[in-house]
Amino acid sequence: MGLEGRAATLATRSIKKDSKIWAIDTAISMVDLTTLEGMDTDGKVRALCAKALHPDPTDPTCPAVAAVCVYGDLVATTRACVGDRVHVAAVATAFPSGRASMDVKLMDTKQAVADGADEIDMVIDRGAFLAGNYAKVFEEIVAVKEACGDAHLKVILETGELKTYDNVRRASWLAMQAGADFIKTSTGKVSPAATLPVTLLMLEAVRDFADQTGTRIGVKAAGGIKTSKDAIRYLVMVKETVGEDWLNPDMFRFGASSLLNDLLMQRQRMRDGHYSGPDYVTID
Amino acid sequence: MPFDYAPAPESRSIVDIESNYGLFIGGSFIEPTSGGFFKTINPATEEVLSEVAEAGQADVDAAVAAARRAYDKTWSKMSGKDRAKYIFRIARLIQERSRELAVLETLDNGKPIRESRDVDLPLVAAHFFYHAGWADKLEFAGYGPDPKSLGVAAQVIPWNFPLLMLAWKVAPALACGNTVVLKPAETTPLTALAFADICQQAGLPPGVVNIITGAGETGRMLVEHPDVDKVAFTGSTEVGKAIQRAVAGTKKKLTLELGGKAANIVFDDAPIDQAIEGIVNGIYFNQGHVCCAGSRLLLQESVADEALASLKRRLTTLRLGDPLDKNTDIGAINSSMQLSKIEELTASGEAEGAERWSPTCAIPDKGFWFPPTVFTNVTQAHRIAREEIFGPVLSVLTFRTPEEAVAKANNTPFGLSAGIWTEKGSRILWMANQMRAGIVWANTFNRFDPTSPFGGFKESGFGREGGVQGLGAYLNVEDPS
Amino acid sequence: MSRVDVRKTHKLFIGGAFPRSESGRTYEVTDSKEQFLANMALASRKDARDAVLAARSAVAKWSSATAYNRGQVLYRIAEVMEGRREQFISEVSDSEGVSSRKAGAHVDAAIDRWVWYAGWADKYAQVIGNTNPVAGPFFNFSVPEPTGVVAAVAPQDASVLGLVSVVAPIIVTGNAVIVMPSSSRPIPAITLAECLATSDVPAGVVNILTGAPAEVMPWLAEHADVNALDLTGIVDEGVAADLERSAAGTVKRVRGAAPHADWQATPSLSRMRAFVEVKTVWHPMGV
What we know:
The complex is a heterotrimer of chains A (284), B (481) and C (287).
Chain A: H1 2-10, H2 17-29, E1 31-34, H3 42-53, E2 67-71, H4 75-82, E3 87-92, H5 102-114, E4 119-123, H6 126-130, H7 134-148, E5 152-156, H8 159-162, H9 165-178, E6 182-184, H10 196-213, E7 218-222, H11 228-241, E8 252-256, H12 258-272
Parallel strand pairs in A: 1-2, 1-8, 2-3, 3-4, 4-5, 5-6, 6-7, 7-8
Helix pairs in contact in A: 1-10, 2-11, 2-12, 3-4, 5-7, 7-9, 9-10, 10-11
Chain B: E1 20-21, E2 23-25, E3 28-30, E4 37-42, E5 47-53, H1 57-73, H2 80-96, H3 98-109, H4 113-134, E6 152-156, H5 162-175, E7 179-183, H6 190-201, E8 209-211, H7 216-224, E9 230-234, H8 237-247, E10 253-257, E11 263-266, H9 272-284, E12 296-300, H10 301-315, H11 336-351, E13 355-357, E14 373-376, H12 383-386, E15 393-399, H13 402-410, E16 417-421, H14 425-434, E17 439-442, E18 461-462, H15 467-471
Parallel strand pairs in B: 1-5, 6-7, 6-9, 7-8, 9-10, 11-12, 11-16, 12-15, 14-15, 16-17
Antiparallel strand pairs in B: 2-3, 4-5, 10-18, 13-14
Chain C: E1 26-30, E2 36-41, H1 45-64, H2 67-83, H3 85-96, H4 100-120, H5 124-128, E3 130-131, E4 138-146, E5 149-153, H6 161-172, E6 176-180, H7 187-197, E7 206-208, H8 213-222, E8 228-230, H9 237-247, E9 253-255, H10 270-274, E10 276-284
Parallel strand pairs in C: 5-6, 5-8, 6-7, 8-9
Antiparallel strand pairs in C: 1-2, 3-4, 4-10
Helix pairs in contact in C: 1-8, 2-4, 3-4, 4-6, 8-9
């Protein structure tokens, strides 16, 4: 209840003019531009990569996104397209369900890293978590982290399946203590995905973890964030909860696809002084 | 990093404040016969908003006579069904004019627009809706088959929630078939006068609602008026006692909603971040100008340091300033008099050895302001732990066991509200049972609803407002045997 | 030659015991024909103070007894009174100067009143309390809780029925009471005290001070540890007004004078409502 009230209050903060321009560019630079469909192809991924590098082809001042996020088998294609200009994130560990053997999950991870992924978005075993087998969840994260090598590990809690704030809080701490570099709300395959209150809760966990250990963990809100207004509300919450140190792509990400175009349309509106339309941004 | 909030002031142009207001008696605004006018100001800027009539004895007499006439000739004879329709009309008009009323409230009172818009006004409308529905159903309220109205109600309300307190008084009075003479506080008369306009708009029969403005003396004349059948007062315990003395020996029915010094008790298993939100809402909501404010924070010693650190960090994010700005969390103190009282009591806190802390925040040059303040190392013996400060000032005490928390929480002549923060269900219910307070918020704080009765134990007053119990304050429910 | 009877000097009833007045004072009561009935203790300010202490120490346990238990205790009072029915009838008849038949009707009604209120013990909270459908995800309920220590004046005329009608609703709701019975007809009150002492009513829940309300009540009206006044039996409007004024000092709840109510009538909830405080508890609902 406290979470929802606080999130609702912060959602009414007013961001305008220079702050809004800054917020939109920052939000763009925080996007993990994502395609996670069974029908994904090399062609689809190449288009997405082009968009990631130049979100607004009419405006070279528009920043690139943070990363392109794909299934493991498309990592090589992705890396070939983007070079080292943006990060390549691969979902791994039997995304989205997490239902596979440990060996398969580790192979999944190692292969993605070998193919060029420098960020791994793993899912936790929600079944084990809900069965109270926290040790299994913990050990799996530790093992995947090791398999990642130098790649950054984002741990997807899938908050829509954990259901309660208590579970999300516990899972956040478990992931951080097991070595996550980021904790991430959702796969995008389960509704609800990211919400303001649940992200607030994870930000609080990250803040308290930093207070207690000195280690700063990032947060990724993924799924369901579709408008610039939504994105700015998340940034306000980040600022008010963990502070400005988290207001950059190293510490906060949006997992999204359609959000980017809304950010671009808002960006054009701020630049041109009139509302833009969907034909003035590219479809990926 | 240019990520700052933009000023987002609500437009003033929506309100149309007249240069002066008469008294609303018998359905129209009339000049005061005996008194003059006094100024009402915007406490955030000290700008004069308007001049308002000061009602004297002749005006009070006229208002009570108008209410009596309306009671005898119209309102007591009208069916409950028709009374309900007038009250429903009022509720709708409040919803339609809620933006205007919220801005007006914020201008005259100093509270943040976020609160007047999102808390006060929705509750005002809800209160009229709830009671409208009761008007033709009173025989089902548990007060017997044919509960009777009392007659003319004299109502005196405070400045902290001007229009909401009006709603709490007027809605049940009208629903139960009484007519009213209401006196708003002298520093916040404007929304009550706007409400008079709404009564006209609703076509409410003249004299059913009369609004007279003035200071304490006008209030005294009103409650002492011999032709009044009911007195309802919300305000300080000191004035409440004087009113109780004044009505002694009369047949007037009295309800009082007075001060408080609520304990907000945080156990070591409470979710700290949620509790912090509740603590902040408990004492910094409406600048702490709340009779049920959680002004005493009782922290279990094992989590006291952690909770205090979290609280202080959270307080640094509070935004004090222009009440009309939608980003503002803490508005202006309602009056220079109230500000002096807060300053005096906080000075006593320091003098008595408590440790004072406030986040750094810029205080505007004009107007009346007080930063959110926390006192630690407070004991039960300190004045700031006993007296109602009615400002954004939190006194922090600690406890070790549930029994100690109960003893400290109840160790006060007041008994309006209490807060409990713990995850353990059985402990919540045990604590709720132990609290000598009329409202207990468990894992939440400062929630209000027209269906939920509100009122105190002990020196916090008697009678309830809201809910089915609140109807008893405006019906003749006393049976001699 | 008839037997020389044993004349009685009755005592007060405080904290379950029968002390003399601390002041040592007594007064004489007579029947309706001015014939001597007994000596009574004339309660003083200090007796009132002792009674408040006894009532306060009783109230925590009594108010937290289960409703079922309070109902049983009240019903037991009726049982004990029933056993002394004849004594009550003769005392009421002597005191009030009414026929045995009329006194019998009073006593029967008084016993029945205990039964009536005993049955309310586990019901009034269901009728006065409720859940409230607030507009939000909260569970919200209102419960009546005892006000605490109540100082009461019983009617002057109806020596037993009026007394029971005043005391029963105060204690069934979990309060403790200090009651001043009829000054001129106090004997049935003392017999009631003997019933209470030999029934299951915990010590201090009912305290009976015989004497002059005009002398003792001002102390109770001002006493900061008294929560409420029941002025039912006050006849003099000026005295009632003074007591109401004194009550304001600590915002006591006051039920006004009603010295000549129809005690044979079936009561309503009114008297139980007068000495309960409605407490409302909010808790969020959510997972």
